[in-house]
Amino acid sequence: MEELTQFLKNTYPFNKLPEEEIKNLSQFLLKKEYKKGDVIFKEGNKPLEWLYIVITGEVFLEKDNQLVYHLKEGDIFGYVSLLSELPPATTARVVEDSTALLELPKKIFLELLSKYNEFARFFTKELAKRVHKVPQTKTSFQMERLINVRVKDIKLKEPLIVDSETILQEAIKLMIEKDSTFCLVKVDSEAGIITERDIIKKVIAKDLNPQQIKVKDIATFPVIEMSSSEPLFNALLTMAKYGIRKLVIKDGDFITGVLDDRTVISHESKNIIFLIKEIDKAKSAEELAYLYSIAQDSIVEGVLTGMDPEYIGKYIAELNDHFMKRVSQLTENLVGAPPCSYTIMVIGSEGRREQSLKTDQDNALIYEDCGKEYFEKFSQVYIDLLLKIGFPPCPGNVMISNPYWRKTKQDWFKEINRWIENPKPENVLNISIFFDFRNVAGSEALVNELRDYVKKKVKTSKTFLPFLASEAVKFKPPLSFFKTFIVEKSGEHKGKFDIKKYGIFPVVQGVRVLTLDNEITKTNTFERIRELKSKGIFTEEFARDLEESYRFLMNLRLRSQAIQIKEGKIPDNYIDPHILSKNEKGILKDSFKKIEEFQRLLFNKYNLRYFS
User: Where does the Cyclic nucleotide-binding domain start and stop, copy by copy (predicted)?
Assistant: First the structure.
């Protein structure tokens, strides 16, 4: 039993229980061994009487023979049925021999929930995340597989690796022997790649002798790498982002295999790859408009079936990036080649890859010091095409057709300097929109120059970050002294509150301030929180709670907007707390309390008593 007690001490949230309580649990715990194919419980059977924790091995939770969750060591399951007292919504099937589970009786589990708030919060949060996560359509199952399946769960192509000094003729022989269409080339800690296409284009087409060429001379460096623990969805997005067909997969520093697009497609997940390929080769606004409508339907479907808000944001961003890049190419076809380098940037929620379904376009343009008339014409045509496709206009006119958001590099430097030196409300608003910028079309170098300039200016200003932080504490979460929800008393949104203004914005803005303060280059709020944790700015516990609170708020907003769209309404940011379940209300209150704690942290760190 000592072994089981130690296991619980290392398993969240049991490790938050008092040590004596964990020791006491040992008398109630059962350890059971299962073999591959064993069914622990079936979908629709009587409500469960045990909580299950995976000690070793793997378990699939399936609905209608489709994978919903892939559980591994430390994962907990069965609590949805225990808490709801309903039959299980999934079938639990063992998929690996020598799988061991720890089983805790329902009565003891419920006693722990009533005694320990933090322990209970974990399960209510997890329950809320799963309430809407049972897929309903084939498309939804494909999305869920991409998220729940890890790259290492896929059978990867075994890598053929050769030294950089290898003669190409020898590498070709090895490729034929291994029946491989590529080989990896190692140079110190870096890897490159040679494909059949490289050999045809770089050697055969030029009538070169492969016996006189070293592999390093024609290899492409570096290859794009990814950890084997990443979700398959991330691999798919990375392929789409870089326009590549192969990813090198690593476990730590060790290359374990190569994932290619054919392998992913064979895993029933070609939707986004197919869509992006169609976007990239579209020849007109009409074609893109058709693809845009398909993309919007898939996004709404993903939200309604419980797709994680972080992945929804990245999914929307990846699709929109390709639409915008293709529109920039069509625009150049119409107005001619640009006279100098330029970059189209997305800013605001687009820049963070956190768009909601109430989306509009926020973009800006930077170009070298020439071609003012060209870029004026270019920008108008570009925005007109986006509008034709279906992108809504920005109500605040934050678009490159507005001269204010279209400047030369030097003029942007001056404008950023003015914002930082004079942080009045209008400038702080512009900063909040602009400082999450990233490139979607054109020169990446211009964006990097701009980012370096921002970093330098922020470092030299003593008042800028406190002013920015004061915006993050301006709007308090809508909880009364007695912890009831504060809602609109009259008007169109009576009985509701603005979840963006009072919940999402304080997190985004506060995290943005700390990101600038600590020279973090990531733009996504989820990723920024993790980076702040890794730098020691947040404790592991605080980062986890803040991230999950933010995730829950984003999920509520997305779900509400998806329902509005399905009902033919215009989506907004207002939430009616009275229609939430009891569990959701509890989690929402906990989330708001965590945001209040975050605001106190910012208030003290930046001495904001002087800004009130």
Answer: 13-130
